[in-house]
């Protein structure tokens, strides 16, 4: 098959040629947009799921929906080693520019930009020299006395309020999208929850849409107990059989090509229905096929090629971040789960390694911070990456 015409697109956050199996989430967000447009209160939204299920792709789709409705929209990717103030300022700057196109009062827009600049400048360390101070690139004077206290919780509530009122002026809203939400630092999580709480009480047209690993609800509730009622949590999982087949079949048909039923079956079994794997194995099968249609033999020949690429780019890059002690922990988890995507008891991991559970807490906590594992429930631990256990069991070391 012509590799130039290969429709499959495995990539971090890259939209697949067919966004299958996410109709429910898209429809739910359409309701959020419409309710906010009518001045009705609506909770912010948090998407949770393992790596490779398409959370970032879906986040991008929701952002596009908001933009098509005339909303201001900005996106942030949280990092465990950085605060949220600077990236939030950049994302909301983008959203305000979207709104400015429709607003008839430039002075009003500049006033909010001044508040945003004051908020952003607080990201600079106290006493930093002028040459070392970060400038947010907002071409208006910074406001004083608004969103500039240095307390992120107070400042974020004031900033969100002003941006939401600007959106209300033009009869629209603002969507703030936060990816990798589990990496938001504790103080910033608390501030984000407080700001969303304030907005929900006032009915202001600003919605936060977050995405992160399965333990995000635990991270949020540890900061503010009311976060369980503040956000609507949506679990994103692997594709059902029919949706996975649609994700594979529709792009192939659009290229006037075909695939046999047993090849579709083999692709589903190999990928497990995980969207990223569907793209990876689908791409390899297309490239391996000498002609139309793609057959089960093509899938069989292509599987090692796809797995070798996944071993480097999807699994290996994460494995390399673990220390030797952490790798022992990961391997014990893989042995206990027999390579399946299942949670295992932390006590069983300790028994496997011949150690006391308390002595393994540093390794476990570090792996959680690195996003390699998560606490599925009290006393149990699971991989954040599908098929990671199978990958570990297949390694020679």
From TrEMBL:
SUPFAM superfamilies according to UniProt: P-loop containing nucleoside triphosphate hydrolases
A Gene Ontology molecular function term of the record: heme binding
Pfam family, one: AAA_16
InterPro entries in the cross-refs: AAA_16, Cyt_c-like_dom, P-loop_NTPase, WH-like_DNA-bd_sf
Keyword tags: Heme, Iron, Metal-binding
TM region(s), chain numbering: none
Region named Disordered: 1-20
Highest taxon of the lineage: Bacteria
Record carries keyword Nuclease: no
Domain Cytochrome c: 168-334
Name of the protein described by the UniProt record: ATPase
């Amino acid at each position: 098959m012509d590799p130039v015409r290969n429709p499959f697109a495995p990539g971090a956050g890259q939209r697949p040629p067919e966004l299958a199996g996410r109709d429910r989430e898209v429809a739910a967000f359409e309701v959020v947009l419409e309710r906010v447009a009518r001045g009705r209160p609506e909770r912010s939204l948090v998407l949770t799921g393992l790596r490779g299920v398409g959370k970032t792709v879906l986040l991008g789709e929701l952002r596009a929906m908001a933009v098509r409705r005339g909303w201001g929209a900005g996106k942030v990717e949280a990092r465990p080693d950085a605060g949220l103030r600077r990236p939030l300022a950049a994302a909301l700057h983008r959203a305000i520019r979207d709104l400015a196109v429709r607003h008839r009062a430039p002075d009003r827009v500049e006033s909010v930009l001044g508040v945003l600049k004051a908020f952003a400048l607080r990201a600079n360390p106290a006493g930093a020299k002028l040459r070392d101070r970060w400038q947010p690139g907002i071409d208006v004077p910074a406001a004083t006395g608004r969103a500039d206290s240095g307390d992120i919780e107070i400042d974020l509530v004031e900033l969100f309020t002003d941006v939401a009122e600007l959106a209300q002026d033009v009869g629209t809203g603002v969507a703030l999208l936060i990816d990798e939400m589990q990496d938001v630092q504790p103080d910033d999580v608390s501030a984000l929850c407080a700001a969303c709480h304030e907005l929900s009480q006032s009915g202001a047209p600003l919605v936060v849409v977050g995405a992160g690993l399965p333990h995000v609800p635990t991270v949020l509730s540890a900061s503010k107990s009311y976060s369980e009622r503040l956000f609507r949590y949506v679990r994103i999982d692997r594709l059902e059989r029919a949706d996975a087949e649609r994700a594979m079949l529709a792009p192939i048909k659009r290229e006037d090509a075909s695939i046999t039923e047993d090849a579709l079956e083999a692709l589903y079994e190999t990928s497990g229905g995980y969207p990223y794997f569907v793209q990876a194995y689908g791409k390899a099968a297309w490239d391996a096929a000498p002609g139309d249609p793609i057959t089960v033999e093509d899938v069989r020949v292509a599987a090692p090629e796809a797995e070798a690429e996944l071993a480097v780019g999807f699994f290996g890059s994460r494995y390399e971040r673990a220390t030797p002690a952490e790798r022992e922990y990961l391997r014990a988890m893989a042995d206990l789960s027999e390579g399946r995507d299942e949670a295992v008891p932390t006590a069983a991991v300790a028994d496997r390694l011949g150690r006391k559970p308390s002595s393994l807490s540093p390794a476990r906590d570090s792996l959680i911070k690195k996003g390699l594992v998560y606490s599925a429930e009290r006393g149990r631990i699971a991989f954040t990456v599908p098929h990671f256990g199978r990958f570990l069991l297949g390694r020679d070391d």
